[in-house]
Amino acid sequence: MNARQPERIAVIGAGIVGVSCALHLQRLGAAVTLIDRNEPGNEDAASFGNAGVLARCSVVPVATPGMLRKVPAMLFGADGPLFLRWSYLPRLLPWLIPYIRSSNKKSVEHIARNLAPLLFDSVDEHRALAQGTEAARWVRSCDYVFVYESRAAFERDAFGWHLRQENGFEWTILEGGSIGEFDPALSPKYQLAVVLKDHGMIANPGRYVGDLARSFAAGGGDVVQENIKQVLAGDNEVTLKTAGDDIKADKVIIAAGAWSNLLAADLGANVPLESERGYHLELLGANKQPAQPVMDAARKFVANPVDGALRLAGIVEFGGLNAPPSKGPIELLMRGAKGMLPGLEFEAKRTWMGHRPATVDSLPVIGPAPGNARVTFAYGHHHVGLTAGPKTGRIVAQHVMGLQQNIDLDAFRCDRFG
Ligand SMILES: Cc1cc2nc3c(=O)[nH]c(=O)nc-3n(C[C@H](O)[C@H](O)[C@H](O)COP(=O)(O)OP(=O)(O)OC[C@H]3O[C@@H](n4cnc5c(N)ncnc54)[C@H](O)[C@@H]3O)c2cc1C
Questions:
Q1: Which residue out of 383, 391, 412 has the highest number of ligand 1 atoms within 8 Å of its CB and is therefore the one to mutate?
Q2: Max alpha carbon distance in the chain (Å)?
Q3: Does ligand 1 lie within 6 Å of residue 208's CB atom?
Q4: Distance between Cα 180 and ligand 1 center (Å)
Q5: How is residue 208 annotated by DSSP?
Q6: Cα 316 to Cα 416: distance, rounded to the nearest angstrom
Q7: For ligand 1, is residue 200 a contact (CB within 6 Å)?
């Protein structure tokens, strides 16, 4: 390589994580190619259909102490937010067992402590990334509200709230009639609301990612539509295999979301990764919507007033990357919406299913591939990838460019799974 030439860096995956990596690298002066088999911001990406919340406070993973006791109600209860395609269970078990093991108090405290630095300044990180681009129009500051049907239900979540408090988050509690004064759209069945200030939302996550990618291209970045079949890391360069010509790069970032292991496994990485399938239901022309994102804490869905629609998003379904969407989750989201917003009517609806990239310990993998520093991993962001994408992109860009980091990446190493 000519020492005067900038390094050729390829980023695989144009979801929020890959696009953020590409933009931050470009801003540090690298020559970057952003590769996705689809358009940036496409519907296959989790980054398209998520709930749109910049959930700074989401340091608490889904799997917390006592989870096993709650699983039967979550799975079999009429409004349980957990779904399983039973035929997938044998394939899921090797992932599920260590995932459940990571729900103990000590592990969850470790997860929260390490998610906090990725999340706490995420609204600022999004603003900094989007500043001066078309994407800035989608970034909004707002409260984030959790609603409960009783104080007792809130108190049953004390472990998670305590963990948020320990990690620096504060909130206000509203009870009874004051909830209706705060947000008249919400059902009076909610007896307690937790209001967290200084959060944010992305009003159209898919178009946001598309706009960020366009600004990357306008800044001289290459956007290439290719399906990468294999990553071959050599001593002097990295070769990306496609159905056509190979793509060569000096360094490569794998940010392919829930599909990342299909590429990373060949490099000797042992990262247990599953798709945590999630759903959204968008209601167009809705006569009611909350003023800001609201999480129904029992049913585990968010109602968010996004660009031109009311988006209900959430659900955890295990069923792998290839099975078609199920009906149950959408019906559940519809029931949840009607329960949250009494008198809800709408003109039309849209539905979507996507894949959260889920590691067994609810922390992403950020850092070098095993045995070859030319490849960097940036995937596995579970429920918080939209929130943490820009910060991850900044960290990855600094790492790849050999700059000083002000975050300890040890908890994100790919070899932590043994
Ligand atoms: C229902 C739901 C609600 C959510 N709500 C929130 C929320 O409110 N806040 C939050 O922070 N997070 C939320 N999330 C999580 C968040 O959406 C994800 O963590 C995040 O989008 C992951 O981003 P990513 O860039 O890693 O992956 P993706 O967005 O999935 O992007 C991966 C990209 O890689 C491409 N790709 C894959 N393999 C290849 C290949 N071989 N060659 C070329 N391209 C390839 C894909 O086409 C895709 O574009 C939610 C997720 C779901 C499903």
A1: 383
A2: 69
A3: no
A4: 34
A5: H
A6: 25
A7: no
Domains (ranges, CATH) in the chain?
8-47+207-271+362-417 (3.50.50.60), 59-103+140-199+273-357 (3.30.9.10)
Query: CA separation (Å) from 241 to 134, 227, 231?
Result: 33, 9, 6
Q: Is 225's C-beta closer than 6 angstroms to any atom of ligand 1?
A: no
Write out the two tokens for 158: 């004390």
DSSP string, 212-270: HHHHHHHTT-EEEE----EEEE-SS-EEEE-SSS-EEESEEEE--GGGHHHHHGGGT--
Dump pLDDT digits (tens) for 284-306: 999 999 999 999 999 999 999 99
Residue 4 predicted with pLDDT over 80: no
Answer yes or no: is the C-beta of 62 below 6 A from any ligand 1 atom: no
Quote the pTM value. Answer: 0.97
> For 27, phi and psi rounded to 5 degrees?
-70, -20
Is ligand 1 within 6 A of the CB of residue 198? no
The confidence score (pLDDT) of residue 386 equals 98
**101-143 pLDDT, tens digit each:** 999 999 999 999 999 999 999 999 999 999 999 999 999 999 9
Q: Is 297 in the pocket of ligand 1 (CB under 6 A)?
A: no
The residues facing 367 across adjacent strands are 377
Give the mutation target among 39, 123, 259 for probing the ligand 1 site: most ligand atoms within 8 A of CB. 259
| 260/298 Cα distance (integer angstroms) | 31
